[in-house]
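Hi Q.,

Before the meeting this afternoon, I wanted you to have the pyridoxal-5'-phosphate prediction in hand. No need to reply - just skim if you have a minute. The sequence and ligand are here:
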Amino acid sequence: MIKDYNVTQIRADFPLLQEKVRGKNLIYLDNAATTQKPLSVINAVSDYYLKYNANVHRGVHYLSAKGTQMFEDTRKFVKNFINASDVSEIIFTRGTTESINLVASSFCEAFVGKGDEIIISEMEHHSNIVPFQLAGQRHGAVIKVLPFDEDGELMIDDRLEDLITEKTKLISVCHVSNSLGTINDIKKIINIAHKHNVSVLIDGAQAISHLKVDVRELDCDFYCFSGHKIYAPMGSGILYGKKSLLEKMPPYQGGGEMIKEVRFSGTTFNDLPYKFEAGTPSVADVAGLKAALEYVEHIGYENIEYYESQLTNYALEKLKTISGIRIIGNAKRRAGVISFLIDGYHPLDIGTLLDLFGVAIRTGHHCAQPVMEHYSIVGTCRLSIAMYNTFDEIDMFVESLCQAIKMLR
Ligand SMILES: *Cc1c(COP(=O)(O)O)cnc(C)c1O
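Predicted structure with the ligand bound:
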């Protein structure tokens, strides 16, 4: 185990992990859907409403100035956290879905015309499919799909360059798959894309709580994530975009804050990043986001990555001993998302029985129906780990799973 990694102490910071469900200790293994929040995050949100609630940016008074300061400090913090070059490249959104919709809408408006092509992958979350289908329809663009192989690895070497033509404008892929756990070689995808002058959006929703992200080292054109998947409040999210691209893109939504001057004869737009931040943002949630990122930084990505990979390998090894189990997704590099099926039993039945033991996992298609179609299955059981899960919890999960299977027999 890693020196200084004290999972007991980490768990103590998360109030909900102390709760009982159905009279049992909660074993929360649904972190890919959302993560629990440490007390520092909950306090940051309540402090905002208790001590400095006011609207940001427009006020001259004390509270508004304080709120604005926190808001802009968070932007700077995020900039450093993902190593962006400039604060103007950090846009606050409500989450990954809104970030992707923003890019799909504004990037396509600026750069995509009839017959142009956008490449996504076969393992995308619906959030990284549907916005491009909608934008594609509006602009007459074609959506092409980079497939994955039976292990759940994207066929980058074999297929990507064949898919790219001079009509290709954008590639949008996930950093980590939320259904297969695959960590994609996005660096390779970005390098290939840039060789052909194609921009790249990375959906980092499933990566940000597990892996250190450096947008400048990756050289991605866009990167986005949801706060709630990295211990921050729902309603907070980030879109990173290269300034040179964001400057050429039209606003996504119209409203307050995104304008310079409004006349009935025409409106001029605000500078980056405000051009993309129409209306009152979710300020308290942004306060929570800062606290969450500080928390992660305090624990340290190297520690998190190391601990979580041990835990994931342990879970995989234990699961493989269960007869009739089929693990869906066997990528060489993987995060702590494990999809599986038990031969002869419906995932929903397994999930429902596990819940009786206080074990929270997810069943279904995980908003990735094309992945299910690839394997000709309706859904999977999925456990997904976070830095606060323990080896004991994995033991209890596997024990409960075996019990559940016995009950179904
Ligand atoms: C959760 C998730 C999304 C959607 O995030 P929201 O927070 O629901 O907007 C998109 N992509 C992936 C890979 C996800 O895991």
